[in-house]
Design brief:
The protein has 15 helices and five strands. It is mainly alpha-helical and 347 residues long. The protein folds into two domains: 3-279, Fic-like fold (Orthogonal Bundle), CATH 1.10.3290; 287-345, Orthogonal Bundle (Arc Repressor Mutant, subunit A). The strands form two sheets. It has a three-stranded antiparallel β-sheet. It has a two-stranded antiparallel ribbon with strand order 1-2. The longest helix has 23 residues, at 257-279.
């Protein structure tokens, strides 16, 4: 039985911390239209940056990476020549994002849609768009060679039934108002990851579904601020709350609220960033310069050019060094020389 089903049966009280998130997100949604009527060029730049950041971060969470110098070509070229499967999968994620951004309002949440998103993210691999054919638990591997089963997923033979029920529960939950739609969305995300319907790529599809469901509920911040990037920046908490909330899932004895609150906190953080970058209109800068300056605010107090490069996919190192040079003495200082030189933020 899914978390959504439990909400349908038991009208359990919503924790106070969750209620605060819902109140804050409701307020942000009320201001959303105001923000999106301002600075169209800035919104266009934010959409372009979010597309790149989302494709890179969501794949990097799964160990799929692209050389920073290749990101722009892989994601922007009409028909790029891929060097490896990692590049193909990052490009595929970008195509899935484009589908949601452009057709999301009419993209019905169904098993067909789930499989379509999976097919796009996995490229030409043999089981793209197909549920798993073999059982596969989530294994955690340690540096010393030890392993442990972090979670036992739904067996392959039972997966189609569980997925059909999850989709049915989602639509019934919205129609019959079992719980607030944002709570339902986070619960659906948890259930999807616990079922683990695909052999590989479940995390990426779950994040695409998060974006799609947010769009369906009128929370459009994922168009402008990368939810995947925020999850990657908080990945330790992401995996921690996922493990907490999946414990006892098979027996209907799990506590979904740690994971639900985490997902709501990601949305709130995205809206706060959106408000900071759009709500207060300032003199326009070049899109890449703005992307670099925004990334600087998210880096640790001490950082390297390589870290900044990773946080600004698609921006050349030459451009990074030019902006750092302009900021030198104002917001940052350089310590040392050469490629490994450290930069320190002032203030």
């Amino acid at each position: 039985m899914s978390t959504l089903s439990l909400f349908g049966i038991n009208k359990s009280p919503v924790p106070g911390s969750t209620s605060w998130y819902l109140a804050d997100l409701g307020e942000f949604r009320g201001k959303q239209e105001l923000y999106t009527r301002q600075a169209p060029q800035r919104l266009k730049n934010l959409r372009e940056h979010a597309l790149i950041e989302s494709a890179v971060s969501s794949n990097r969470l799964e160990g799929v990476e692209v050389d920073p110098s290749r990101v722009r070509n892989v994601l922007a070229a009409p028909k790029p020549l891929f060097r490896d499967r990692d590049e193909e999968e990052v490009r595929g994620y970008r195509e899935a994002l484009r589908l949601i951004h452009e057709q999301g309002d009419s993209l019905f949440l169904s098993e067909e849609t789930l499989c379509q998103l999976h097919r796009l993210t996995r490229g030409q691999i043999w089981d793209a768009g197909c549920y798993k054919s073999k059982d596969g638990d989530i294994i955690e591997r340690y540096a010393d060679g030890r392993e442990r089963v972090r979670f036992r997923t739904v067996p392959a033979l039972e997966t189609p039934l569980h997925m059909a029920q999850l989709i049915t529960d989602w639509h019934r939950c919205l129609e019959e108002r079992w719980i607030h739609p944002l709570i339902a969305m986070a619960a659906f995300n948890l259930d999807f990851l616990c079922i683990h319907p695909f052999r590989d790529g479940n995390g990426r599809v779950s994040r695409l579904l998060l974006l799609l469901q947010c769009q369906h509920q009128g929370f459009d911040v994922g168009r402008y601020i990368s939810l995947e990037r925020l999850i990657e920046q908080n990945k330790e908490r992401y995996y921690e709350t996922l493990e907490q909330s999946s414990h006892g899932w098979h027996e209907n004895q799990h506590d979904p609220w740690p994971y639900i609150n985490f997902m709501l906190s990601i949305l709130k953080t995205a809206y706060q960033e959106f408000a900071e970058r759009v709500g207060d209109i300032q003199a326009p800068r070049g899109s890449k310069t703005e992307m670099i300056l925004s990334a600087l605010t998210r880096l640790p107090h001490e950082f390297t050019v390589a870290q900044l490069e990773q946080a600004t996919p698609g921006v050349s190192r030459e451009m990074l060094r030019r902006v750092l040079g302009e900021q030198k003495g104002k917001t940052v200082e350089c310590v040392g020389r050469g490629p490994g030189a450290k930069w320190i933020k002032k203030g």
